[in-house]
Amino acid sequence: MTSFEKQVAKYLLEIGAVQLRPEEPFTWASGWKSPIYCDNRKILSYPEIRTKVCDFMVQTINEHFKNVDVIAGVATGAVAMGALVADRMNKPYIYIRPQPKDHGMGNQIEGVFNRGDRVIVIEDLISTGTSSLNSAMAVSAAGCIVDGMVAIFSYNFPSARRAFENTSMEIYTLSNYDSLIEEAVASGKISEENLEVLRDWRFHPDTWGV
Question: Quick one: pLDDT band at residue 133, thresholds 50, 70, 90?
């Protein structure tokens, strides 16, 4: 939990990063159906909000991690934000592909790093947690120490929380699903009907809409 939850949720709603479509659900890479979609990449198009979110990430890292050698962004959604954070902190930057390239050098991690470097991974969004953890594991397999992950937003699913609890990595998110829904209700951006749909989905995301 961070002190930025409500503010970041407000930003996401203000810029239309959150879309509700219960009548025509979105399909995630995991195959899950969802009545809600959060596109944090839209933050990059709003300079003032982009700067604030970057500030929040840097503050979170400085508060919780004392020895940081490298900042790593997860492709593709967190590549740009990760670079902004690394620039602000004056740290080396690398980014992590979902899988190794099938041509050229075959790299999964792009950039310069050394074995033993202490790395903080930047994510834009955590849903099931699978892709985020796979990225962190790739960095660990390359010989680095992944001390933690900082994400803009998390759906805060129990399965994702359990997956992260099984690692030694600390994770911090600027905002989450509960804060987003609370802010959406307060600002009148969702109807009572949609609120019920979102609550139902929240507790059964893997079977909802099936």
Answer: very high
